[in-house]
User: Fold these one by one.
Assistant:
Number 1:
Amino acid sequence: MNSSLSRSPESAALCYDSLENSCPRTVYPLTLCLSLYFLFTTIFILTVSGNMLVIFVIWYSQNPLPAATNHLILSLSVAGVLIGGFVMPYSMVRSIATCWYFGPIFCEIHTAIDIVLCNTTMWHLTFISVDRYLAIFYPLHYQNLMTNKTGATMISSSWGLALAFGFVIVISDPQAKIRSSFYKDCMGGCFSFHNRKIGVKYSIIFYVIPVCIIITVYSRIFLVAKRHAKVIHSCNKCPKPSTLLRVKDLKATKTFAIVIGTFLCCWTPYFMCNIIDPLIGHSIDNLLYESLMWLAYLNAMFNPLIYVFLYSWFRQTAKALLSKLFM
């Protein structure tokens, strides 16, 4: 997901003043740079701390979610911690300095890990939608269907698919190393593969296919959830265990729908640009790419906030853990 800010060829500022083949860079006012460093640092601190809090709360609490669902949330939060702790700091420097000072090899590594972590987030959300589908459509068989083994298979598949795509395609495929002719041979650049072939293919594999699965699954879920909710509300005398379980499933489904909706709001603008740009001759300004990339990164910070606001058990456990930590 790495891109570079738009730079004018006439700019006199260079990434490396001592090198003739240095990439040009954009020089921003000091006040703006300091403000952006403060903003981005706040974002990745909140991302890491928020997702770490989710991990500790899920790990130490007796929450009402099934074990397999907990494991999916834990794994998703691990990806959020890594995005905030590893991807964001280097992307922050590249975004503000408009140069890459960490070497070409680490550029490839950072790009691949960036794609792997964001890709695994999408697949986790896809499998969470499948988990919710099973909970709503097969409530009596849910415990047998969503075993710890099934959850482990979903988690390993999420990471496996992301690793295969991120490292095999991005690093091994020579087409993924294509750069624009202006920056092809200069030092100080770290650029993503926004060419016609790779950009569209990448977007379809990473975004369009999982999103179609998620939308299809949740469309069916909400049709059934609506009917279930009417039955539950019309039954005044039945505090049966099965009914109470159904209420919990409906609440969890609604929460995860908000998580997935937030993901779509954060990532859709970036991928729309990624799909459209090659078709219009790469005329979309790279500054827009950079801004949309950071909007996409914000998704990793939003997920913990959703749990805080929508789960009372999460708030109570988090409050207890924080009070122990700071007492």
Number 2:
Amino acid sequence: MRRVDKGRLLLWFGVLLFLLGLLTGLVTGPMNNPRMGLSAHLEGVMNGVFLVVLGLLWGRLRLSARWLTGLFWLALYGTYINWATTLAAAIFGTGRTTPIVGAGHHGAAWQENLVDAGLYSLSVAMLAVCVIALVGLWPGADQPQ
């Protein structure tokens, strides 16, 4: 079986998410909360760029295979759920967890709960991604002991 280059996959998924963010920007007008739609557009674009940067850094990370695998999946989860949850919030018109851009908007309880779960879980995932990446980029990490 061929070994998958995770750095290259991150580049591919990053460009795809960037594209999804651009396409989201084209359809924000008819959403229940167009301002949140703009946020979804920006999340797609910015998270796509983040994945591209992570893909470019991939070969410089000094982590075990297990940590690299965890980092890869957490990064994909966090970035795509960030875009998807923000897009769902725009479509549903939720506002409980996003009081600034969601002011005056309220969705059904299940919609608010779905958006809350997405936002909370992606926050934990992205914090973990940043900490793991920082550990892998630590200046002395590639020096022999």
